[in-house]
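Handout for the seminar on molecular recognition.
Each group receives one record of this type.
Step one: identify the two inputs.
Step two: read the structure output and locate the region that could contact 2-acetamido-2-deoxy-beta-D-glucopyranose.
Step three: write two sentences on what you found, then compare them with the reference statements printed after the record.
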Amino acid sequence: MKYSFTAATLAILSTVSAHSWLECTNHDNAEILGWMKGNSTMNPPLIVDPSLPWYADSCKGWPRSKKNPGNWIDESSNYIWNIGANSWNGGSFHPADTHACPPHQRSPTYDSNAPMASAAPGETIRLRFGGNGHTRGSNVPGGEPGSVSVWWKGKPEQEITDISEFTKENLLQTGGFADGSFSYPADPSVKSPLQGLVDKGNWMEVKLPKDMAAGRHMMVWTWAYSGQSPDPQWSTCFDVMVSGDAKSPISVSAKTVDATPEPVKATTAAPADKVAPVVDVPAPVVDAPKPVVDAPKPVVDAPAPVDAPAPVQAAPEVPAPAPDAAAAPAPQWTKWPENNDAVYWKEHGHARARHFQA
Ligand SMILES: *[C@@H]1O[C@H](CO)[C@@H](O)[C@H](O)[C@H]1NC(C)=O
């Protein structure tokens, strides 16, 4: 695998056109997918966004160093890793950084209420990532959503540290970025959020090998564009704790492992624990008026809420409003720029633009 100057240049450009990261490494989407479908057929349709904090309970496994509930602003600052741009060798001006994982995800670090996924050999884990409007190729270099892959060294306690380890031998599974997406409207000519596309749910079901040894398995999820830049572009790193006979973690036979389908241990945190981390997140996240996302506006008028729960920044000091505080004015979204990710950059201080007004 090589990253030519051309590819790197594309990659840098792509930082303002398309990015994604894993939000959850084992998502129980049965209930929420029903809600998403049901709400999408209402008139007007309501958006149900599974990345919002009040749906965090449906996430049963998390990437490294994640928060539960998550915070969109925080996540997009800390967890995205642009392989193409970072690995570009620009000499002393820009030395190549070929790490496979973002800085926060180079060791198996987990908060107690956001544990790694657990599974038995042969089971399926369901990864969830943001569509961010790219599900039908909008704002993606090449105009197609590209592919997602999971890389794994095949044994417990083995770390993929460098992009040179994205090899055929280490490839566990690959598929289309949008293979497991629920998006609407059905009209395929609707491609971008500005036209009304809603693609809040993107999933990748990863089938674990039946002969997987017990223990902690490190994995890397990547998104690659198609066409001119098919190399992994964005990554998220995570672990799966595989149950089984931990006394012989390396050489457990498939039969032995299958015979002891010891269920998930560490994942099931007490409900109280799940609520606690609100401390880590500005309280208004949870209390913030939901209308931004759930507002029954015609999708056409508010096409690009993307996945940015903007009130997070909008009202950090505002006391929690009464549940039905009719007096609190709902934030009004201004027109979003053509490029969704321009919003992201501005939110991160490059322009410090505000995209809503009271
Ligand atoms: C819409 O979503 C909510 C959850 O936000 C759910 O309670 C409700 O049942 C859904 N409605 C439909 C028609 O699916």
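Reference statements: Residues 5-262+270-279 form one domain. The mean pLDDT is 74.
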